[in-house]
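Exercise 7. Predict the structure of Potassium transporter from Shewanella livingstonensis.
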Amino acid sequence: MEHSIFIHILSMLVIAIVAIALLRRLGLPAILAYLLTGVVSGPSGFHWFTQLQMQSVAELGVVLLMFTLGLEFSVPRLWAMRRTVFGLGSAQMLVTAFFAGGVAMLVGQDLVAAVVIGSAIALSSTAIVLKLLNEQNWLRRRHGELSVSVLLFQDLAVVPLLILMPLLAKGGAEMSFNSIAWGLLTGILAFLGLMSFGKWILPRIFDEVARSRSNELFVLSTLVVALVTGAFTQWLGLSMALGAFIAGMLLGESQYRRQLEADIRPFRDLLMGLFFISIGMLLDFNLVMQYWWQVLLILAGVLLSKILIVHGLLKLVGENTKVSLSTAISLGQVGEFSFVLLALAVNYQLLDTEVSTVLVAVAVISMSIAPWLIRHSVDIAKKVSGNKLASQQEPIEIVLPHSDESDVVLILGYGRVGQTIARFLKTEAVPYMVLDLDPTRVTEARAAGENIHFGDACRMALLKKMGIRQASLVVVTFCEPRQSEECLAVARKLAPDVKILVRTRDDANLHELKEAGATQVIPESLEGSLMLVSQVLFKCGVPLARIIKRLESERRNHYQYLHGFFSGTETDFTLDLLHAVSLASGASAVGKTVADIPWQALDVELRAVRRKGEEVDPPPPEWVLRRNDILMLVGKPRSIEKAEEYLLQG
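Solution. The predicted structure, encoded as tokens:
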């Protein structure tokens, strides 16, 4: 029997791995792979586990999911966004929950079931929306900020909903206002008590844990704290998941937060996946097929109603059509915490299994199409809103200053780097113009008097209008290689002789950018190393002129000495390594000159030769290799191995 359970668990993990790999290739989130694994492993598939086992796994998953949410909860971030979080977020939750709950009551559900259904539908997927907004670099755009604000309030709203679930189970439809108030008061008192415990006692416990210098003890202590606080809130008649959330908050506010995050991070996705697998097990696929047309009808109704509600609320507060519609589309899906509420509602017998299964199916389908909707939300909003935004932004693009000066600097991109460059140019009274594609940033900067204009730096007509042919210098500050290459091609076509500086993260695309027309490529990470080197040399008494000469030599040689390093325990086999080969008396290379060794065929570079404590860098071609010479080789690990074998054995 135990052997059979082990085989079932192993098979379930294999299914999860295959499902995640396949769905990742299709651009779908991993949560759908976990749900699919649960469907295959549960009653609708191979029926490897009993209903009791599934409920236990589901509750453990809820506890761990709420714990990770509490650990990442940031009070300062919430306070900074309090207006949109508590204003827009609360309005979205209340209006959507009332509308969905009202529709549920119209089709025959009682008041308790309507509250659960309305709350579940009002939630959106924090994990999916934040991940995709981050991938598209939209988190700092207006619709990204609004989406994050709503999601923050929804995450907060889960806490009182978790308090409400067991209270609804106890009183049902006959529950009085006093019992609800007492339950909420109990939850608040438990929260305050646990917060006091976390402030005065928990740090002392973790001080002792920290002295052990054991990561395993850290993780174990964290899990014990989560389960103990969960058991405490359950003893008070509240949800165990609420206690886990508070435990996460306690640890998230402590001085050990960074260490805990580093220790728990490898387990976090797996623990969340455990819960979603359990949800998939609760999904009766036969029942979904039986009610397939209801599932599709509810799905369409949920998406349209949530989009229209968010769009309407944002229009009421004065947001333009493009921002409000793209925000609404991003929040149209049902969220992962809806699974939490539905699972608890079934466990507390607040909702029929058939209704829960249909709603879970609706949530799964809405989350599967969410990536496509979010990626195309801005394009859809543009098409729906027509040319309204274009007409609003048009004056920003057309009304450009006319300057007769030939030494104007054109800055493409006004992020952190672009703004820093502009400040130094302003200090030196060098005229400059800026082009950026973020409307919020452009509006803020123009209000502050900056010479900035809205537009796409890859558009030929716009660069021509900005006067790129008269510019003395063009600085490309965004880091995306494809965007930089496209911008370079357009800029070089319009102004063949202008100097163009391109900022990159590293030198992975240095040669491509040079070929595309860049006068100089500035790799941010490597330049940071050079600046540190210059400070070290200056503090050691090396003359400033000599330091500058050395840095310029390094730039001309394409950062040669910033590549090739001695490998450590964790070796990145995609990078060039620096390796020392000592020539013994019987080595094949002894007696040969440097020119006799086929370095190109070996695909390595001879960086230097050390002989009797002195280093020759680089050795001349006629240099004769002798016994006990140490050769410093740079290349890929496999090439290094091949070259070492050749030098020693021939």
